[in-house]
Amino acid sequence: MQINRTPGSPATGRRSLLLGSLGVLATPAIAQVAAFPNRPIRMVLPFPAGGSSDAHIRQMSAIVSRDLGQPVVVENRTGARGSLGAALIKGTPEPDAHTVSLMHFSILRHAHITQPRPWDPMADFTYICNFVSYTYGIAVRADRPWRTLQDFIAYAKANPGKVSYGTSAVAGTSHIMMEDLSSREGLEMIHVPFRGAVEPTLAVISGQLDAVADSTAWGPNVESGQMRALALATEARVERYSQVPTMKELGFPIVAHSPYGLFAKAGIPPEHLDVLVRAYRKAFESEASRDICRRFDLNAEYLGPTEYRAMIDQRNTYEVELIRRFNITA
């Protein structure tokens, strides 16, 4: 460090040095080198308030705000299959790490089923880090006659076009999970999309829907006895729901994998990217973050920028195949 001294007594020089040192100590450590952020960070969350993603991102962003010395303002923007954050990032005039959003696989899918193409997932975005993946499953109200997934399928087969289920989005991961099951079993069911996983869960409890197929917003209702989980779309059983079989166990090779992380516009300065990566990794590894992951059945899958981009690249190719296979349209 270079220190510029003004003429004066040794005491004046020592006092200047002391004050300069205090100034350095007062600056949040993570942000020193890059002089970033210099204003509030805008975090666009494409899911409703009150869900697992909202709770997790807000908790981590509070830690990041403290460490970087600037507020992280979380803004919920729902609708358009969870793509409004991506649209805002794409529309940002210049690369700017002060605006970030939550990446999920529906954003990749949206790019291939919407015309004109709204964005190129590999060319238009910078991938910051991945955090977790959701736990998906199928749940019904506890007083319905279906005690197993096989019961539910048998009823749907016997009553084509009468069984309804809700998910958090058209062409979302849970919707595709159910389309996969329907195509394998020859089912004709009514899909009702919502803007998150909490709303279809409430619709099942109120009797408006027969089932919810989504992340475990329904978990507390299963534990309270209001609902029954029929199956999980995971590789293996989950400790919290140890009595619930996986779809693979039941003979359906269906695993719904849907991670989420952060992204920004392509071309943000590498030193600004580094500040965000270090700040959010620290927040992700906090005990408060771990508590939220346990509460909402979020599976830790941290990836740094290089690994995250490689994963997105691979998944983007797979999404094109998936869209063709199931003839998914906007």
Automatic annotation (TrEMBL):
Pfam families registered for this protein in UniProt: TctC (PF03401)
PANTHER family, alphabetized: BLR1237 PROTEIN (PTHR42928:SF5), TRICARBOXYLATE-BINDING PROTEIN (PTHR42928)
Assigned protein family: Belongs to the UPF0065 (bug) family.
Entry protein name: Tripartite tricarboxylate transporter substrate binding protein
Organism: Neoroseomonas soli
Taxonomic lineage of the native organism: Bacteria, Pseudomonadati, Pseudomonadota, Alphaproteobacteria, Acetobacterales
